[in-house]
Amino acid sequence: MSAKLIVHLKAHRTEAGLTQADLAEAVGVSRKTINTIENGVFTPSTYLALCLADELEVSVHDLFALPEDD
Amino acid sequence: MSSNPVARLRLIGSATMVLLVLAAVGASIASIGPSGLTWAWVIGGTAIAYAVLSAIMHLRHPEAAEAAWDEQNTTAHRDALIFGFWATLVTFLIFLALVLTDRMDARMAFFWLGPVLGAAPSAHYLASIFRGRAE
Q1: Helix then strand then coil, % of chain B, to nearest 5
Q2: d(CA B131, CA A68)
Q3: B135 inside domain
Q4: What pLDDT is stored for residue A70 in this prediction?
Q5: Rounded CA gap, A65 and A6, in Å?
């Protein structure tokens, strides 16, 4: 269970024309948290993932994906 | 430094606690400055003042407080408390050995456990901030 998530948050955020600070404020977290999620350092909870997806009007699967099995 | 006032105060408060404890330990080892008991009171007083100031900031800036305590920062805080528990336990065992071998006064050992308990989590939290894993 230690596989890293593939994160597409940055692409969807920039497509929506939002800065990290804008998105952070919209979902009630710190800008650092958005930054570390985008960089794959921090894995968000299901609740936060749903909030991010809701704010960007995409599904959670658009934002996060499991790596392909080798 | 963070633009969030609550996170900024947390960073300054944590750094102050760690620096005070390091200064006190350094002064005690070098046998300069005030006594260990005086340092313990200075550190304890600073910790209480920080706690009061922090409570005021949380009340004055509720939205900033919510962002400052989001899930990543809460995780970093939990890890810091776990580290603080083990650091205090290890320090207690070291002090116990020193007291039992008459190398340390029991009263002094008791007073020093307080600052360690307060500063160890702060040191861990600062490390998380500098590693980019907390704000």
Answers
A1: 85, 0, 15
A2: 29
A3: no
A4: 55
A5: 5
The two tokens of residue B127 are: 């490390």
Report residue B121's pLDDT band, with 50, 70 and 90 as the boundaries: very high
Let me know if residue B80 belongs to a domain: yes
B31 φ/ψ sector (left φ>0, alpha ψ -120 to 50, else beta): left
Q: What structural domains does chain A harbor?
A: 6-63 (1.10.260.40)
CB of A38 within 8 Å of a chain B CB? The answer is: no
Whether residue B123 is contained in a domain is answered as: yes
Residues of A in contact with B67 (CB under 8 A): 24-25, 28-30
Q: Which residue has the tokens 């350094």?
A: B26
Neighbouring C-beta atoms of residue A6, cutoff 10 Å: 12
Residue B73 near residue B135, CB atoms below 8 Å: yes
Partner-chain contact B67 A25, CB within 8 Å = yes
Strand partners, A65: A6
Tell if the CB–CB gap between B71 and A45 is shorter than 8 Å: yes
pLDDT at B89: 94
Place of tokens 């998530």: A5
